[in-house]
Inverse folding.
């Protein structure tokens, strides 16, 4: 396997970092104006809770996986075995996390409809294999996929989020963004 160019990887990451800085400048004022402060507060609160569960379910698997794949990237048999072990570990930890999340927030809560939608956010985290490509130093696939999905997400925001009555649409948009960013990398590139 060829060693990837540090210069190319740096340029891909730079392009992506610029994009994720610019997109909120475009979308945040629009979403704030349409949804209002109360809905933005609800959204932020629920996302913060789901993010904690996602972090707990990941348990540092991304950093560990990236390091392990980088160590053995030349040995295809070991790499496949390690990949499978890490994916199974991640599925198990995310399954436990989703179960706890469901019992805690989805069953009895004022905002349970939003917590239900965001279970898919946690499911998508289980399918995240971007660590594998980072370990192989193949940033191009991950960055291009993220750019495409984030661009589609911005378009969906402007199409679906038109009034405060459509507050659920932003949660669905988040699902689309997160799920496709994580799941399609596994399906298309693995």
């Amino acid at each position: 396997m060829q060693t990837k160019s540090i210069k190319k990887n740096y340029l891909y990451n730079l392009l992506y970092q610029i994009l994720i800085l610019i997109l909120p400048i475009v979308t945040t004022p629009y979403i704030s104006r349409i949804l209002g402060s109360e809905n933005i507060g609800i959204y932020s609160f629920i996302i913060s809770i789901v993010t904690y569960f996602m972090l707990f379910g990941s348990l540092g698997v991304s950093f560990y996986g990236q390091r392990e794949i980088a160590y053995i990237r030349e040995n295809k048999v070991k790499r496949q075995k390690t990949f499978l072990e890490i994916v199974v570990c991640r599925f198990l930890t995310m399954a436990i996390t989703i179960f706890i999340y469901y019992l805690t927030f989805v069953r009895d809560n004022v905002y349970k409809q939003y917590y239900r939608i965001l279970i898919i956010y946690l499911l998508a985290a289980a399918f995240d294999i971007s660590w594998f490509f980072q370990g192989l130093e193949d940033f191009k696939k991950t960055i291009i996929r993220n750019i495409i999905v984030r661009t589609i997400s911005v378009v969906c925001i402007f199409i679906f989020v038109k009034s405060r009555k459509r507050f659920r649409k932003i949660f669905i948009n988040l699902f689309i963004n997160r799920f496709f960013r994580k799941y399609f990398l596994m399906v298309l590139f693995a």
User: Anything to note?
Assistant: Residues 6-189 form one domain. Residues 106 and 113 are 8 Å apart (CA to CA).
